[in-house]
Design brief:
CATH class of one domain: Alpha Beta
Shape: elongated
Distance between the termini: 59 Å
Largest sheet: 9 strands, mixed
Order of helices and strands: HHEHEHEHEEHHEHEHEHEEHEEEHHH
CATH architecture of one domain: 3-Layer(aba) Sandwich
CATH topology of one domain: D-Maltodextrin-Binding Protein, domain 2
Number of helices: 14
Number of strands: 13
Radius of gyration: 21 Å
Oligomer: single chain
Length: 378
């Protein structure tokens, strides 16, 4: 009897460890989400009314943005626990790869950290019979500038300095420009190891938009998904960049905040010109995203962000991940699952997962429009 009780306690402790470590594991685990329900043994972490399975059935494939991977993994686990007849699999790759897959008709929806360009919308008409692709803002959050410098726990940078680091102009951590922003910090002469994304990335494009808006003299490149600057080292996906920063002394890189949080990577506070440097937190990102305006037309809800904001406590280096769907002409075999799954992610329970796990929910006024559009998909 004592042995049985001991084994039960051990199993309970292990179960708690698995649950508490779920977010950490998503940052470096497989993109195969089919095991999200633990073989049917785990219980949904949702109230019964939080997910409406409706006509959802079969397998729903999706791909794209790696910045939202941690949120999507949690969404899928909860959703599949509630809707046992649906299998959702999200391949975390890059925004560019997701859009290509969507326009080729191989996925039910795609994730992108930058709104579709006109030529991509035009291309989507081949996959969306009688319709076209639209942008639905679903995930917000700060793009963290993560660093790993021995002996340095706190670091403040401004946009021109960030630009010059990633443009290979500032090469040592004790450079005068960095020292000026960090009085009293003992900065070593360690060489800077800057890491960027190897594949087309919406996160890269958002960093480029921020630097172009705030440090154009130091960042003479147009914002694009492909990394534009010389020097530096490339890694695949947000998880890959984060892993390189974590293991390399002198490293700096950019990735969605949850990748820094899950791996214990220190992040830069940004000197925006406000009274105090602004840390990369979901709350501070929300202050910047709340000022966004809808720039899309009709059912398209693409947003215009103010990367140059100097509002107190607003972290300006943010991204919004869009789920890309057909407004009309979605495939009949996946339409039910697309509407059901995105209805959950845009709902109160789905958005709460964001604020609980290092992301920023979409502002309520915009999110209401997202729900209405999801309900209208055909």
């Amino acid at each position: 009897m004592k042995l049985q009780r001991k084994n039960r306690l051990r199993a309970s402790a292990l179960g708690a460890l698995v649950v508490s470590g779920a977010l950490v594991l998503t940052a470096c685990g497989s993109d195969d989400n089919t095991g999200g329900t633990d073989g049917g043994s785990s219980k949904p972490s949702l109230a019964a009314g939080d997910v409406k399975c409706d006509d959802a059935k079969g397998k729903l494939l999706a791909s794209g943005s790696s910045a939202q991977k941690n949120a999507v993994d949690l969404w899928i686990k909860n959703y599949m626990a509630a809707c046992s007849g649906v299998e959702v699999n999200y391949k975390s790759s890059s925004s560019g790869e997701g859009i290509v897959a969507f326009n080729q008709g191989t996925v039910g929806f795609a994730g992108t950290d930058s709104a579709l360009k006109p030529e991509q919308v035009e291309e989507s008409k081949k996959a969306c019979t009688g319709g076209q692709a639209i942008n639905l803002p679903m995930v917000g959050g700060p793009v963290a500038i993560g660093f790993n410098v021995a002996g340095v726990d706190k670091l403040t940078l401004d946009a021109p300095t960030i630009a010059n680091i990633f443009n290979d102009k500032i090469k040592k951590w004790d450079d005068e420009a960095i020292k000026k922003l960090n009085p009293g910090v003992n900065l070593p002469s360690t060489a800077i190891q800057a890491f960027h994304r190897s594949e087309d990335s919406g996160t890269t494009e958002n960093l480029g938009k921020y630097l172009k808006a705030t440090a154009a003299d130091a960042w003479p490149y147009d914002a694009a998904k492909k990394w534009p600057a010389p020097g530096g080292q490339a890694a695949s996906g947000s998880a890959g960049v984060a892993a390189q920063v974590k293991q390399t002394d002198g490293a700096i890189g950019y990735f969605e905040l949850s990748f820094a949080s899950s791996q214990g990577i220190k992040t830069v506070a940004v000197n925006t010109g406000a009274a105090a440097p602004v840390a990369a937190t979901p709350e501070n990102a929300s202050k910047a995203i709340a000022a966004a305006k809808i720039a899309g037309q009709g059912s398209d809800l693409a947003l215009k962000l103010d990367y140059a904001t100097k509002a107190e406590g607003a972290y300006p280096l943010v991204l919004v991940t869009y789920e890309v769907v057909c407004d009309k002409g979605n495939k009949a075999e996946t339409l039910g699952a697309v509407k059901s799954f995105l209805g959950y992610t845009a709902g109160d329970a789905g958005q709460k997962i964001l604020s609980d796990n290092g992301y920023a929910p979409i502002p309520a006024e915009i999110n209401k429009k997202v729900r209405d559009v999801v309900a209208s998909l055909s």
